[in-house]
Protein: Nitrite reductase small subunit NirD
Amino acid sequence: MNLTTTLSWTAVCPLDRLEPDRGVAALVDGAQIALFRTEDGLFAIDNRDPVSGAYVLSRGIVGSRGGVPTVASPLHKQVYDLRSGHCLDLPGVAVAWHDARCRDGLVEVRLRQEA
Structure:
């Protein structure tokens, strides 16, 4: 899979609006994403659960597995690596991940899309 990155960063919210280890949904350039703030950093993945098709990953359970920051789907409990989007329970299943950063106190996201 080839990924392309959009050139622009989109401001989503102030950093202090993100509670640690809780997800929030945001609309970025027409895409629904799930945004997470953990002790490992900021992470953005698509909000759509690839197993169920529902837009629920922002409501998932944040944790870690073997030192890897993760989110578990609130529906069927599949666990996804927040750094790469890969499902740790089902080989070959993944959710798209995006670049996230904090700049001047604002959380920004840059979408990555399949080419």
Observations:
- The chain has a mean pLDDT of 93.
- The longest strand covers residues 31-38.
- The radius of gyration is 13 Å.
- The CA atoms of residues 46 and 96 lie 5 Å apart.
